[in-house]
Fold:
Amino acid sequence: MILIRVLKIILKLFIGLFLCGLVIGIAGYAHYSKDLPDVATLKNVKLQTPMQVLSKDGELIAIFGERHRTPLKYDEIPPVVVNAVIATEDARFYEHFGIDPIGIVRAMYIGLKQKGFSQGGSTITQQVAKNFFLTPEKSITRKVKEMILAIRMEKELSKEEIMALYLNMINFGSRAYGVAAASYTFFGKTPDQLTVDEAALLAGLPNAPSAYNPISHPERALTRRNWVLGRMLDQSYITQAEYDEAIKKPLGASYHSPQIEFSAPYVAEMARQFMYDKFGENAYTDGYKVYTTISRTDQIAATETVQKHIIDYDMRHGYRGAEKVLWQPDETPWDIEQIHQTLNKYICYGGICPAVVMTSSDKEATAVLSDKSNITIEYQNMKWARPFISDTRQGAYPRKVSDTIKAGQLIWVKKTGDNWELSQIPAVNAALVSLDSDNGAIKAIVGGYDFNLSKFNRATQALRQLGSNIKPFIYTSTLEQGLTMATLLNDAPIVRSAGSATWRPKNSPPTYAGPLRLRIGLGMSKNVMMVRALRAVGIDYAATYLERFGFPKENLSHNESLALGSASFTPLQVARAYSVITNGGYLITPYLIEKIEENDGKGVIYQHQPLIACHNCDDDDVIVGETSVSLDNVENESNESGNEEPEQENLKADDDLVLPDIDTENKTTDVTPKYAPHTVNSGIAFIMKDGLRSIVFGGSDWQGTAWRVKALGRKDVGGKTGTTNSSKDVWFSGFGGNIVTPVWMGFDDHRRDLGRTFRAEAGAVTANPIWVDYMKVALKDVPVKQDVKPDNVISVTIDQKTGLLPSSGSKTMSEYFIKGTEPTGYATKEVGTKVTDSEGNTSELF
Structure:
């Protein structure tokens, strides 16, 4: 009886405790489940995935984002990986309902024993719940919420969906999130290529990614991998034979950085900045794929060409000495570890790397690189190193290696073929931007020698004076007002006085030939003829006209120095302006972003729609000046404009690069052609483009300044050189086919000039070769373009000397004119008019 009474009491106690526990559990569930997120959102969850910047052909240029991740579908994850993870993290994954009671009891026991809940006992489902919805704090409250969410997840999601979320979300260390990123980071493989031992290694990482990192802690990682293999064997996921084979294998892990197809850091930074401006921090986590307009071939050619010619310039101007002296030749040399620590503070720039000289003799020097390898520099690979004195002066060539390179010096070297050469980090810089003139797509862009050396993008940010690069645009304004390529302008010195100041624009070289046709003045870049042409149309008219080419009005000076290129613009603005001449008068807008895709299956959210040049349109919508021009005032020394500015459409061009508005809800994918503003008469653009060809091919008795372009072997090329005072800026801007490319070189410090060595550094000899080398590649598969003559252009045979209709005995040539501007008078030969030069030699003027 007593026993039965005791049993009844115990039973009642258990029932009471159960009911109390049930009430407490229901109350706790009600309390902790308040405000918990909806687990159904995991069906469409957006995992943090880095932004990828790609070429127009889909080749990877750069990745931006702390977390490297490539999300996979469940059926893309191999079973060996799933099995390894289950064996390691949650052996009863397929049996439990989100929580594992046995695991919880074990965790509670350990927690009470240690007076702190450091053991989680978490299932894979709980880990997913914690990582997506909760903080990482270790507390009972967080644990209860985690359990509630896990139970709800098991009702809402399949086991496969939960496993896919886990394997795509979890941190494996070394910035690799998800099994796809981890497979590549540690093994350079995709998950389907993993072997059993590799899958086991990865499965063991999420528990403690830093502690078990196979690169930082290979011994721990190996122990952990073997433990995982043992778990897989115990749970029959692998056979004994597979276990025996896998456990014998070495770790085999090494770090693999993201597989960049080719480097274009200035392009990547432009794309990154654009995406950040549009999406903020989400740009780095929402998995955007940003397709740019550049191609690998063009971009690599542009980068290599710019770097080569910068180095060539730098070597022409002498050696500025060692980067640093670590010890003197008569002192005890540093040990290799000291040297290595010092070298590790430096990086390579454009193939130029740091080295420390160990020995030096008459014929060679030996040096050590940052990887501790030894190299030899022979005399022929450093004999260029005349001491730098100034930008215009260099010392004598060294007679032996030890004259220049001494033991203990930290120097810069580069490898050419199998040989190591003495080098130095260039002080000068350059920029190149190449456009499709028909639609504004950027084909290549280089903002400086090396992005790691300077992130300043000179192609888009550097305002530099144009020099003679501005002449085609001013001459175009004169064609608009009635001048022609056959108009005679006086190539004679100009002197203008204003109070005590005197202005004397000069030709370069300072030679003068008297009256010349405008085409020759453009081709030979005659400065004084340009000033007279500017006076003919008026300064204010010409300055305002230049806005038709997209030049910002605030950068345009309203004085006669405008004729000599005193205005400053970026290379990108110059590329846009030359495109107007090249494409028939259309003001295209440069753009870099071709399209943007989301990585979650939504596809293209933005497709750029360029404004294109119309080659089959008429000129009805063109802005045309309404005032006439007179040559009577070209010798007037005043600073008056001479003509009132005609009314024109406001051509504001604040944005040189298209930065589109992107609406992620209403996708921008309309690709219906739209035409760019037609700002210059097609006939006038055609004639000026032909004039730019003259700068390459010259005439029967004169040579254009861009004759080096003939090396391309094409007839559809042209361009203009440009050199500012003291050669502080040198330019060459030209076209071939539908490609327009300006090149600039100079010092970031505007006070320094490029100087001279054996020759004066100028646009024709310094910038033009960069352009030629790049365009050899860019035009390789581009067919020669044959321009169609507009209806308002006629070809007339003229007298070469006077630009008039030829008379008997005239030397003739064909010239283009806008209908109505062709000459009507005939040339006459003057008799007895002679010119005497400084040496007393005489010749007839005609």
